[in-house]
């Protein structure tokens, strides 16, 4: 699987994905890192590994923005995308071109605390304000709306009585770092099947008899 990473910040999820590739837990080749802004940590992580990078800022003309992304992906022959802390909405033409090949990680148990404007600290503050006892992380396939694509994997995280948004974020992020590479490995191994808007995880293929 030729994997493109999209990121908007420090890139800790991108780093976890790259570490999983290095460790042999994810059969993928990282071929591109796309960011919407220069000078971020995710770009530095990619450049340190000699992964091609491109900074593509969203354009007022949505069709030109979509085409710029598609051109960058085509140049590196990417066939899957991981949204590793990418805060911009993926244009519809990119979603359509990579249907069921784009994965995103979100710091809550979707559909709770998802949608436009729900990201980062806002999610964890919302969980605490609502008095939730449990939150977690979700990896899902991307469709043409915010955080509504079919869920691939989820894992719960207990909310402690003395949690702050920062302490809760730290524990949820640790789950994201484990869950995201697992979901990408399922994609790389051809084990994700979408049926009626839901993801079915297929069993691993058996080795052929010699």
From TrEMBL:
<dbReference type="InterPro" id="IPR004607">
    <property type="entry name" value="GART"/>
</dbReference>
<dbReference type="GO" id="GO:0005737">
    <property type="term" value="C:cytoplasm"/>
</dbReference>
<keyword id="KW-0658">Purine biosynthesis</keyword>
<feature type="binding site">
    <location>
        <begin position="11"/>
        <end position="13"/>
    </location>
    <ligand>
        <name>N(1)-(5-phospho-beta-D-ribosyl)glycinamide</name>
    </ligand>
</feature>
<dbReference type="InterPro" id="IPR036477">
    <property type="entry name" value="Formyl_transf_N_sf"/>
</dbReference>
<feature type="domain" description="Formyl transferase N-terminal">
    <location>
        <begin position="1"/>
        <end position="184"/>
    </location>
</feature>
<feature type="binding site">
    <location>
        <position position="64"/>
    </location>
    <ligand>
        <name>(6R)-10-formyltetrahydrofolate</name>
    </ligand>
</feature>
<dbReference type="GO" id="GO:0004644">
    <property type="term" value="F:phosphoribosylglycinamide formyltransferase activity"/>
</dbReference>
<dbReference type="Pfam" id="PF00551">
    <property type="entry name" value="Formyl_trans_N"/>
</dbReference>
<comment type="pathway">
    <text>Purine metabolism; IMP biosynthesis via de novo pathway; N(2)-formyl-N(1)-(5-phospho-D-ribosyl)glycinamide from N(1)-(5-phospho-D-ribosyl)glycinamide (10-formyl THF route): step 1/1.</text>
</comment>
<feature type="binding site">
    <location>
        <position position="104"/>
    </location>
    <ligand>
        <name>(6R)-10-formyltetrahydrofolate</name>
    </ligand>
</feature>
<feature type="active site" description="Proton donor">
    <location>
        <position position="106"/>
    </location>
</feature>
<comment type="similarity">
    <text>Belongs to the GART family.</text>
</comment>
<dbReference type="GO" id="GO:0006189">
    <property type="term" value="P:'de novo' IMP biosynthetic process"/>
</dbReference>
<keyword id="KW-0808">Transferase</keyword>
<feature type="site" description="Raises pKa of active site His">
    <location>
        <position position="147"/>
    </location>
</feature>
<protein>
    <recommendedName>
        <fullName>Phosphoribosylglycinamide formyltransferase</fullName>
        <ecNumber>2.1.2.2</ecNumber>
    </recommendedName>
</protein>
<comment type="function">
    <text>Catalyzes the transfer of a formyl group from 10-formyltetrahydrofolate to 5-phospho-ribosyl-glycinamide (GAR), producing 5-phospho-ribosyl-N-formylglycinamide (FGAR) and tetrahydrofolate.</text>
</comment>
<dbReference type="InterPro" id="IPR001555">
    <property type="entry name" value="GART_AS"/>
</dbReference>
<dbReference type="InterPro" id="IPR002376">
    <property type="entry name" value="Formyl_transf_N"/>
</dbReference>
């Amino acid at each position: 699987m030729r994997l493109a990473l999209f990121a908007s910040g420090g890139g800790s999820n991108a780093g976890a994905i790259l570490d999983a590739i290095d460790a042999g837990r994810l059969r993928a080749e990282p071929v591109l890192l796309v960011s919407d802004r220069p000078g971020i940590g995710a770009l530095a992580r990619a450049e340190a590994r000699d992964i091609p990078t491109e900074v593509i800022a969203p354009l007022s003309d949505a069709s030109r923005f979509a085409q710029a992304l598609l051109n960058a992906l085509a140049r590196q022959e990417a066939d899957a995308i991981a949204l590793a802390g990418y805060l911009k909405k993926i244009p519809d033409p990119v979603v359509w071109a990579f249907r069921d090949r784009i994965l995103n990680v979100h710091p809550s148990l979707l559909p709770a605390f998802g949608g436009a404007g729900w990201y980062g600290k806002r999610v964890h503050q919302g969980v605490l304000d609502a008095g939730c006892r449990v939150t977690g992380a979700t990896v899902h396939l991307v469709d043409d709306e915010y955080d509504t694509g079919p869920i691939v994997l989820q894992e719960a995280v207990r909310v402690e009585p003395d949690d702050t948004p920062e302490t809760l974020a730290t524990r949820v992020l640790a789950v994201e770092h484990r869950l995201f590479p697992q979901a990408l490995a399922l994609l790389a191994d051809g084990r994700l099947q979408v049926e009626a808007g839901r993801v079915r995880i297929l069993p691993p293929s058996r080795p052929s008899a010699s």
